[in-house]
Specification:
This is ATP-grasp domain-containing protein. With about 450 residues, the protein is of the alpha+beta class. The chain has helices at about 20-30, 50-60, 75-90, 100-110, 120-125, 130-135, 150-160, 185-190, 250-265, 300-305, 310-320, 395-410, 430-440, and strands spanning about 5-15, 35-40, 65-70, 90-95, 145-150, 165-170, 180, 200, 205-215, 220-230, 240-245, 270-280, 285-290, 335-340, 345-355, 365-370, 375, 390-395, 410-415, 420-425. The chain folds into four domains: about 5-115, Rossmann fold (3-Layer(aba) Sandwich), CATH 3.40.50.20; about 145-200, ATP-grasp fold, A domain (Dna Ligase, domain 1, 2-Layer Sandwich), CATH 3.30.1490; about 205-335, D-amino Acid Aminotransferase, Chain A, domain 1; about 335-440, Aldehyde Oxidoreductase, domain 3, CATH 3.90.1170. The chain is built from 13 helices and 20 strands.
Length: about 450
């Protein structure tokens, strides 16, 4: 084929159900760029909520101008597909949408001379143990930790700290993350995840936030702080993200410097830094927990895009395309946005009371509910367990509270719990986080 007839294209490797893909496709198409999706379809009929998940997955894959779908995406298969794409497309950027493909994407970008986070940032970010080693070497505050596959070692660690958080060293989506406070709880965990390498760390009591930066050539062009909510312990499932986080200016400046230092020691070049930090209650010390060099999940980039006058995605694309960024974004300081994966009380759904479509409510951008009467609701152990998800945009806090009132008027779920019948709402945890944010005075 004549090279002049090739399509200018963006390649996205992996399909996340909670990424900014719909808006990213729109941004690319407005620039005259085709979107090529390289996807692994891992959804099988035996999965919980299979029909709902496969529907969402197919909605997203249908957005592609060109789709390559495989049952399994090995590095060899990805390289084969990239070669096939190059026959008909001028590849302008390659983006990893899923954590699994961050490292191979960085390698391909390096070979093809495309923008990306860089090899060191990619492979270190993919391994929680390497992260801790690098952070320790450069004097960052991190929770005390141990890497082991020995139950005896971990038992000694729990004896020392009384309470700890244990996680698998190379997983995401909150999978396998659990708080343990006794040897019995530890034994149960190790039995469930036998034969793994574990990262066990000191439990820090405090507030969790994440920092998102859009970076080009190691320079930060967008800085955001997101407030994080989690489900019921002992699990550490992210169930809510609120933009912006209510943070004192002093702490915000410390977080900015932390992100800047992290970019430097990881030799991160271009892309998105997503950094998770605990702010200890008793000391306000910042503990770096972990980080990634790809778009965060939970539609956080969509929330940020709203906050920055719907221009953050354009900035991200300029960075990834290698366009010179010589402008700054307008931040709508009153705007708020939230994603919630609703963690309902444990029990059995008795009745779903929906008095109107939530998508008719101004500010509600997305809503999914996977439950039905008779279903058992369990405590969320990973990001795939909650049966409801909602995204809300608001011009200010008063508007957000009014939208939450409308949502509760429109939708409740009756759940039979061990302690009795409960009228569960979608907004309880959101209201709690908004209240926390409101108490912060700069």
């Amino acid at each position: 084929m004549n090279p002049n007839n090739k399509l200018d294209a963006i390649v996205i490797i992996g399909v996340s159900l909670s990424s900014c893909l719909p808006n990213l496709v729109k941004e690319c198409n407005e620039r005259g760029l085709a979107v090529v999706l390289v996807s692994e379809n891992r959804y099988t009929p035996d999965m919980a909520n299979y029909h709902e998940f496969i529907h969402l997955y197919q909605e997203r894959t249908n957005m592609a101008d060109i789709l390559f779908e495989e049952k399994s995406l090995t590095e060899g298969k990805i390289l084969q597909i990239i070669q096939k794409i190059r026959e008909t497309c001028h590849i302008k950027a390659i983006i990893a949408s899923v954590e699994t493909y961050v490292e191979i994407t960085a390698k391909i970008n390096a070979v093809l001379g495309l923008q990306g986070p860089g090899a060191k940032a990619a492979f270190v970010s993919r391994n929680k143990i390497l992260q801790r080693m690098l952070l320790e070497q450069h004097g960052f505050h991190t929770p005390d930790y141990m890497v082991t596959d020995s139950e005896a070692d971990v038992s000694d660690f729990i004896d020392k700290h009384k309470t700890a958080v244990i996680k698998l060293h190379n997983r995401s989506a909150s999978f396998g993350v659990k708080k343990v406070s006794s040897r019995e709880e530890l034994s149960a965990y190790l039995e469930e995840f036998d034969g793994q390498t574990y990262l066990i760390e000191q439990y820090i009591k405090g507030r969790e936030v994440s920092v998102e930066c859009i970076v080009q050539d190691q320079q930060i062009y967008l800085f955001n702080i997101t407030s994080k909510g989690k489900g019921e312990e002992p699990y550490f499932v992210e169930t809510m993200q609120l933009v912006p986080a209510g943070i004192e200016n002093r702490v915000s400046r410390q977080l900015y410097q932390l992100a800047k230092d992290l970019i430097e020691i990881n030799e991160m070049c271009t892309g998105i830094l997503h950094l998770e930090v605990m702010i200890e209650d008793s000391t306000e010390k910042l503990y770096t927990v972990e980080y990634a060099v790809r778009e965060p999940g939970h539609n956080i980039l969509d929330l940020i895009n709203w906050r920055f006058n719907e221009s953050a995605l354009g900035l991200y694309m300029d960075a990834m395309l290698g366009s010179r960024i010589d402008y700054s974004l307008e931040e709508k300081k009153e705007r708020m946005a939230v994603t919630a994966y609703v963690d309902f009380p444990e029990g059995e759904i008795v009745e779903i009371l929906q008095r109107r479509s939530l998508l008719e409510i101004e500010g509600v951008k997305e809503f999914d509910f996977f439950g039905k009467p008779g279903d058992t609701v369990k405590r969320a152990e990973s990001n795939y367990d909650p049966i409801a998800a909602i995204i809300i945009f608001a011009e200010n806090e008063d508007e957000l509270r009014a939208t939450l009132d409308e949502i509760d008027d429109a939708f409740t779920v009756k759940i039979q719990t061990a302690s009795g019948l409960v009228n569960a709402t979608l907004t309880e945890k959101i209201r709690q986080e908004v209240a926390v944010n409101s108490t912060v005075k700069n």
